[in-house]
Model the fold of this input.
Amino acid sequence: MKRTTVFLVLCWAAAALWMALIFSFSAQPASESSETSSPFVRAYLSLFHPEYGSLSPTEQFELEEEASFRVRKTAHFSIYTILGALLFSAAARTVSASGLKIPLSFLIGALYAVSDEIHQSFVPGRSCELRDMCIDSAGVLLGVLLCAGVASLIRRRKQQDR
Done:
């Protein structure tokens, strides 16, 4: 098998594996998902709210809820940013028309985000939220655009070196 074919297969495999990882996170019931994000919430609180320990229990609860929301939405955005980069890397090696690489990568990622949210609606304690679809899709777009930008810079640099 040619080296470029192997690399193409590896790029799509990486995107598929990342999608499987996202699926596994989405398959966690709400209680298990909260346990997964709990260490990140504690880190967020210690970093951005050192006064947390001196607050009343009500204030602590409210701050924990806010921190949990921020951490979880940042996680959504981040994992989908990685997915967008992986999808663009794969599409860039698959699609010959340069004008289709970005839209195709984004479309695949955004459709996966929608399907992932629908999947969550069948998981105990989880729900399907339009807001999360938008956050996930924005993450995909960032990943696609970052990867496309890096690819463009590399291409320009190679052309200048000629």
Summary: The mean pLDDT is 93. Residues 3-30+76-161 form one domain. The CA atoms of residues 114 and 133 lie 6 Å apart. The radius of gyration is 19 Å.
